Amino acid sequence: MARKIAGPEIERLIQLLGRLPGLGRRSARKAALALVKRREELLLPLAAALGEAAEKLRECGNCGNIDTLDPCAICSDERRDRSLIVVVEEIGDLWALERAAVINSRYHVLGGHLSPLDGIGPERLNIPKLIERARDPVVSEVLLALSSTVEGASTAHYLREAMSSIEVSVSELAKGVPVGGELDYLDEGTLSAAIKARRRM
């Protein structure tokens, strides 16, 4: 049985940090130690930022993005190409595309992908709002920027069928995105090439 190395408050901090993706118990201890040692510079500002974010974060009623604004900053940006909607599975995928800065569109976050084995059907995803947005005469293309997994392909097929009666071009990322790859783990060059080589479905 592992010994406790600090009081309950610091142990709780380590436990919570350990739940973050990519941080195990050891990394969480290192992060907690860095925060504790730099209390004024890191710990207190981080605690304040987390509290403020928790209080103000909300889901955009238009696209499903998370922001402190509704509609979010992307949906409110008049410089964005309103004729193109890029559909992603998760917010991390949206951030990956924005980080690559290869497209200046608006987005739609599904909130996951279809996975019957996990009990995730169309009703669990943000699909009705996507269909509503795709019917807007201003929209001419819907780009399905979904992960190259079996679930991503199934979701893309379902969305193609759902939008088959709408006067809109449906495209997908070029297959430069590796099979089994997830957008959030791809480098900017791969994302850029995939966006530029997209094709109509």
DSSP helical segment count: 8
- The tally of domains stands at 2
Q: Roughly how many Å apart are the termini?
A: 56 Å
- Average per-residue pLDDT, rounded, comes to 91
Give, in order, the helices and strands: HHHEEHEHEHEHEHE
Radius of gyration: 20 Å
Largest sheet: 5 strands, mixed
Q: How helical, in percent, are the residues?
A: 40-55%
> What structural class should be given to the helix and strand makeup?
alpha/beta
The CATH topology assignment of the largest domain is Dna Topoisomerase Vi A Subunit, Chain: A, domain 2
Q: How many runs of DSSP E, i.e. beta strands?
A: 7
**What's the CATH C level of the largest domain?**
Alpha Beta
Oligomer: single chain
CATH architecture of the largest domain: 3-Layer(aba) Sandwich
Proportion of beta-strand residues? 5-15%
3D shape: elongated
Please state how the strands of the largest beta sheet are arranged side by side.
4-3-5-6-7
| Unreliable parts | none
